[in-house]
Amino acid sequence: MRVSYIICFLCFVFVFSCQKENFRTDDEIVVHFSADTVSFDTLFTNIRSITKRLMVYNPYKESVKISSIRLARNENSPFILNVNGLSGKQIGDIIIRPEDSLYVFIQSYLPENGIDAPLLIKDSIVFEMNQTAQNVKVIAYAQDVHVFNNASIKTQAWSGMKPYLIMGTLTVDSLETLTVTEGVVVYMHRGANILVNGQMNVTGTFDKPVTFSSDRLEEDYKDVPGQWGGIYIQPGNTSHKFIWSVIKNGTTGLQIGSPERLNDLMPSLELKNTIIQSMAYGCLLAYHAKIDAGNCLIANAKTYTCYLSAGGQYQFYHTTFANYYSVYDSRDFYNPTLYLSNYENDNTGVLKVFDLTSTFFRNSIIYGTSANEVELKSKQDKTFDILFENCLIRKAQDNSAYFKSITWNKDPKFKDYEKLNFELDTLSNAKDIADPSWAGYFPRDLKNRPRLSDGKPDLGAYERIESK
User: Fold this and answer.
1) Beta 43-44 vs 132-143: how paired, if at all?
2) What mean pLDDT comes out for the span 405-429?
């Protein structure tokens, strides 16, 4: 009996499968597309691109046979198609069932073009059905890049319009110096890091800053944290510079010193007119180091926006520390925007305590979504010399000697922190209350505008200039 049922079922399947499929056969067949143009953002040459997809819709109650889906430039096209698991420049005899759809996947492998500026590449996908042909444009910008893939480098200078792409870890060898000059763009691939055993000097300008960011250039990725690793400056008696630079969308933006090497010589960092923002862990980390900073924006990290540990010496003028990481994801509210201590556990778990000397924050803003955005930790057998002066701080009011002339818990009213605009609104509580004597150290703000023109400078990295 069971065998009979199986035979009947197989006969049914056979008869059904042999039924003739109805196809649309007129000469004016048209299919619909999810877009009239497939646009890639700037793509790096000699590296396979991300995959874009195009949806093709059959609007009819009959099946449609596409006799050919091909690239107009044929074998000269830098693009490649994939349809139903078939790849190539041309794919034939594709059927779309009634009122169904089809995915066409497009990738590219753009050849080096020999110029520094991006080069526009055009093609189109041609769909042929009976006597009808339809086209969807494909465009991309091909950008030549200098590629470093798990490379160790000696002393060299990076300059020019042609970007640099880091894959894996770029290591600056001991006693060697990497100099990055104005206008250079450094793209970091997923998981990429820069490890500085020697020295690193980044010297951009207001008009041509140096930028470190992800190599995902699509609009949806422009502000997403965690797309690459970080820049790690190792301990040692070395000095480093980051001037007029932007570091964004990584995991750890910039770290100087290391908890594994707390007893090594103290490295130093000059950090001026620099933005470090949108990090999946921390923006600026320092372990037993020296930092001289001013006119900086350090914003948005899941854990610490700024973590300064194991003593050292830290001086910040007109810096905006802001943490609104919840714009991207949940923030770790147990950790403040700014953390300072004179001790740290080393890699073996042993507590190491060091002097924290001549550390101050002047004319700065320290604010965010947590009720406590400053945390100080000290062991009293070592120096803990720290002062916050003429700052706006979100924290339970502290009357200790560490704080002087503080504006407590008043919203600085940034223009639009959700869009990473940390300039001051016209009703900002940070307006006109900075100490002019400290403002004189940085007479122009992070937008290169005069800070002292009205005699009443503002706190933070940005001066509010009222339109007339």
Assistant:
1) parallel
2) 96
Structure tokens at 320: 């905006």
3-state SS class at 432: coil
CB count in 10 Å sphere of residue 131: 9
Residue 119's nearest CA partner among 61, 78, 177, 82 is: 78
Joined tokens for residue 42:
């700037």
Amino acid code (one letter) for 232:
Y
Angle CA(401)–CA(407)–CA(409) in degrees, nearest 5? 110
Question: What is the structure's pLDDT at 116?
Answer: 87
Q: Cα 349–354–356 angle (5° rounding)?
A: 135
**Contact between residue 232 and residue 193 where contact means Cβ atoms under 8 Å apart:** yes
3-class secondary-structure state, position 109: coil
The model's confidence at residue 465, banded by pLDDT at 50, 70 and 90, is confident
Could you give the CA distance from residue 437 to residue 232 in angstroms, rounded to a whole number? 34
Query: 413, 400, 399, 396: which is closest to 459 by C-alpha?
Result: 413
DSSP state of 20: P
**56: enclosing H helix or E strand:** strand 52-57
DSSP 3-state percent helix, strand, coil across the chain (nearest 5) = 5, 45, 45
Beta bridge partners of 33: 56
Of the chain, the end-to-end C-alpha distance in Å amounts to 94
Query: Which residue reads 């720290």 in tokens?
Result: 386
Calculate the CA 340 to chain-centre distance: 26
Q: What is the pTM of this model?
A: 0.88
Pairing of the two strands 268-279 and 282-294:
parallel
User: What is the residue-wise DSSP string for 334-372?
Assistant: TS-SEEEESEEE-TTS-EEE--EEEEEEES-EEEESSS-
Q: Give kind and range of the element (H or E) at residue 185.
A: strand 185-188
Q: What is the mean pLDDT of residues 120-146?
A: 93
- Strands of the sheet with 101-108, listed across from one edge: 32-33, 52-57, 101-108, 79-83, 86-88
Average pLDDT over residues 153-171: 96
CA-angle at 320, arms to 416 and 431, nearest 5°: 75
CB atoms within 10 A of CB 107: 17
Residue 5 has pLDDT above 60, yes or no: no
Q: What angle do CA 148, 251, 183 make, to 5 degrees?
A: 50
